[in-house]
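Dear colleagues,

As part of the handover before I leave the project, I'm documenting each prediction I ran so the next person doesn't have to rerun anything. This entry is a single chain, and its sequence is reproduced below.
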Amino acid sequence: MTEPYPDVATHLRDELERAWLRVEYQVRVAWTKGRVGVTDDVIGATDIGRLFAQARGNQTTGDDAGASTVLEQWLIKHREVEARIRATVEAGKRSPLIDLIRAFALTPRQWSTLMFALLPETDPNLVQAYRYLARDDSARGLEGRLLAQLVYDTPTSRSLMARDLSNSSPLVRHRLVDIVAGAAAGDSMMFRRIRAATRLVYLLDGTGLDLDPELADVCELRGLEARGSFAPLLLERAAAALRSNEVVLAVQGQRGLGKKLLLQLAAAHWKQRVLLIDGSRLSQLPAAAHLPTIRAISRELRLLDAIPVFADLDDTTVSEAERDEMPAFFGTLLDDWTGPVAITFNRERLPRIHQRPIVHLTHEVPDLKTRTAMWSDIVPTLGPGDADSLSGRFAIPGGIIVAAAQAAQAGLMPDAGAPGTEELATAVAAQLHQRISRLGKRLPTPYDLDDLIVDDDTRAALFEITAAASQRRQIRDAFKLRGAQGISVLFSGHPGVGKTMSGTVLAKRLGLEIYEVDLSQVVSKWLGETEKNLSDVFDAAEPGHVVLLFNEADSLFGKRTSDVKSSNDRYANMETNYLLQRLERFGGLAILTTNLTSAIDQAFKRRFTYDVFFSFPSPDMRAELWRRTLPKERSSKDIDFDALADMYELSGGFIKVACERTAYVAGAAGSEIDEKLLRATVERMYRERGKVSANGRLE
């Protein structure tokens, strides 16, 4: 009975011995025919004989005889190695070297080619032997002429060599070896170097198999260990699709829902890992690098027994023509990869896939009841009321719940016990903060409703918005209301009347962060980029952990044009249409402010849950604004705020500016703020804005 190889070290030792015997045989054959190797100081016959003896483990010096004896020794070793390889495969034992043969279905000659290219990486003396046999002291490894002697040494096998080194061969197709061009253009294959992929060197130490570092920029290997909570039916359907080699599994849903984690868990059901492929980075590689990279990815999939997942594939489209087609590299991989494959999409539009039938899964945020159960399962110390509160506050999937629970626990001292609702809420916000911070700025929330000076109708509307936003999920679930659970609000009115401040007040009362979206970062001249940026913004805020504030939104949410005269008009309308749809489906709280309510498209206005108009402050409101805004320290007690309010029609923003400017003047002069100084400052502000007299509204 032939024993299988117990480990990679034993197998590697036998492969080295077999290779050395084959090289020695060819050298001795050359000696008997009167051909000698290089004769300079690099290496000579005595030296090469010493290397042969060292490889055999004895001290016999080489001479020009003994070729038949070495051939007999090689045949014995060759049969032994081939038998042990077969025994290892039949026994189902896993070994990095054996897995190469199994994964790529290599023939014995292809395997020998790979070994002669790879083994000098473990025994540099082989390079010296190659130089001697090739009679070329500049040789750096295996070349075609050496391979013809060592593996394809008969006229019949010589034709196999051309086939085994062609682009259709598994050696080249999967980048197990690279064929390096010769020094002169058009050099024969005989003068080209055959170099083993650097990636294969990592297999020779017998440690666990990991991703090729050269692919780390475009791929990520995810293992079997993963923790997440998903709807059982969704996970079951994903796992079933990943068992089939005939379909493409497309998982669609907003960013941050855990689509990649879902696929990782589905693959783990079959004891397989997933290889996440970053299509965006892959598309940015030079065109000449696309095919070699795809071939290397195909090699890794077989070596790692992994399932390819093209993540966020809709981010790779860069032109209008590509919006409805899959990137070319996707088809290139499927031309070679016959196993299961999956893709994830964030947007609504799914490009056409021609290569295979599609299994389309839509991944959505779990409902309120499911989220409550997830919180209770992942954080058992939570009471029913706390779990219900967190699930109502954050519309997030199980993956983010798991991450937030781990982060909250890590932020506590070892003896502090389990995290509470506030620690968990803070951890949820931290998980999602980075996704929106690129396109928005977090605003402070120091004010409450009592700090606002607005009319009664506006105050009542703000109270109603607060109540609706805090209870919307529970109420919609109880009343079985359909549609998105979000609330969209339009604040309109003159500049400086408190629109932005009211947005921060709402966020404070809801216990949420508020982000002002930076329109300069959102709007892009590149086709589709504005849509992508807006998708990122809405998806990041979708779970309800932040309030979105679009200041001066009329510049982005303005009227569509019916008179399309250029491609710019057409693309602007496309973006506006996308905004209309996305705002209607948004599940969080979005606040849009505008100074020109007439500039907002009527289709937008119809979609706002609340349309709040901030009236210009009345004299009584202006007087109260003066009282609250003016610094109480170092201010005269004789200031007539009612007279200031009657005389100057200023919004709250201008009153704040007037108080600050007066404080600077008084502080520099070492005096207190009095009414005369205030009036002088206000009148100067009128003149700076082209007003002949300090009458009327300052705008």
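Confidence is low (pLDDT under 50) at residues 59-64. Residues 8-32 form the longest helix (25 residues).

All the best with the project,
I.
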